[in-house]
UniProtKB/TrEMBL annotation:
Protein name as annotated: Glycerophosphoryl diester phosphodiesterase
EC numbers for this chain: 3.1.4.46
GO biological process: lipid metabolic process
GP-PDE domain segment(s): 55-321
Keywords: Hydrolase
Keyword Disulfide bond found: no
InterPro entries given in the database record: GP_PDE_dom, PLC-like_Pdiesterase_TIM-brl
MF terms (GO), sorted A to Z: glycerophosphodiester phosphodiesterase activity
Species, as recorded: Sinorhizobium fredii (strain NBRC 101917 / NGR234)
Length: 332
């Protein structure tokens, strides 16, 4: 019995130490308010249920409530106007050495063109109607046909049109030259460096861009798993893995409560390590992770969270976050 009592006391002491090292009650949250990261700007949304890599999502949009199309300058400007701090956009390096801002690997789903996006010259991409394939009723009507002609921008055009924006660039390929070409762009136009919040996507171009552009932050699937996996293993000690330093850390909202020190102590550790947190919607399996897209899902964002909230509905979440912040300030 005495041996069991000693074991129980030792276990209680260990639990108390772990609690003390990781409780958020004993740490001041990092300063600042939650910030909106608008996925593809403001765009036509769709259900992720049953979506695969080859699903044409333009053919399953919800009935439109606005006229914006993803990855266009208009959609990005609208997102910024709604309070977004960062815009996520997708790029493909074309044969004429331009970064086309467009999500899909091929043109067949959304446009009146065909073929692989990165193999199509920008001069050709500029002639396409990027709203051609959208339908909310199984093909009975196509509400955006004719409205997207010439609307696929280059990354240069985005930077020029929105000089006060900040952008998270998604490399859609595994081509090292994408990262190298971005670095060359920034050497020629150093004033654009401040516009880039970070890079992510294909591991090879992402790591090349991080290698060539000083101070740039970014992530890929492997680096994210390395960070969160190692933190799960020994983050309770307060040690931050090297993989979590000076980077962007994406955290699915339904996994977040299992992180040592979530929310405030975890955030303080990452801030001290030079990293920013991007809070995603709940991970539901497969390759897709949703955004924080509704008032109900906003409850997944801690009150004192000062990182970035990934959303597909910046026009909804931006005002809701502002309203929540105002209510919090009124209570102080």
């Amino acid at each position: 019995m005495r041996k069991l009592a000693v074991i129980a006391v030792a276990a209680a002491i260990i639990v108390a130490i772990v609690w003390f090292l990781n409780t958020s009650y004993l740490v001041t949250p990092p300063a600042g308010a939650a910030k909106v990261l608008a996925h593809r700007g403001i765009h036509q949304v769709y259900s992720l249920d049953g979506v695969g890599n080859d699903t044409c999502t333009a053919q399953r949009i919800e009935p439109p409530s606005h006229a914006y199309l993803e990855n266009t300058i208009g959609s990005m400007r609208a997102a910024l106007d709604s309070g977004a701090e960062v815009i996520e956009l997708d790029v493909h390096l074309t044969p004429d050495r331009q970064f086309a801002v467009f999500h899909d690997w091929t043109l067949d789903c959304r446009t009146n063109g065909a073929g692989v996006t990165e193999k199509t010259p920008m001069s050709k991409l500029k002639t396409l109607d990027i709203g051609y394939g959208y339908t909310a009723d199984g093909g009975k009507t196509f509400p955006f046909r004719g409205q997207g002609e010439g609307q696929m921008p280059t990354l240069r055009e985005v930077f020029t049109a929105l000089p006060h924006g900040r952008f998270l660039i998604n490399f859609k390929s595994e081509r090292r030259e994408e990262g190298a070409t971005l670095a060359v762009m920034l050497r020629i136009h150093p004033e654009w460096r401040k516009l880039i919040f970070g890079v992510y996507g294909g591991r090879t171009p992402t790591q090349e861009a991080l290698r060539l552009v000083g101070g740039l932050r970014g992530y890929d699937r492997q680096s994210t798993m390395a960070c969160l996996g190692r933190y799960a293993a020994y983050g309770w000690t307060g040690m931050v893995p090297d993989a979590c330093r000076d980077t962007l850390i994406v955290v699915p909202a339904n996994y977040a409560p299992f992180l040592w020190g979530w929310p405030s102590r975890f955030a303080a550790r990452m801030r001290a390590a030079g990293s920013e947190i991007i809070l995603l919607g709940p991970h539901r399996g497969g390759e897709f992770t949703s955004g924080i897209d509704s008032a109900d899902e906003l409850a997944l964002v801690p009150e004192n969270f000062s990182g970035y909230v990934w959303t597909n509905r910046a026009e909804t979440i931006g005002p809701l976050l502002n309203k929540r912040l105002a209510a919090s300030n009124d209570q102080k």
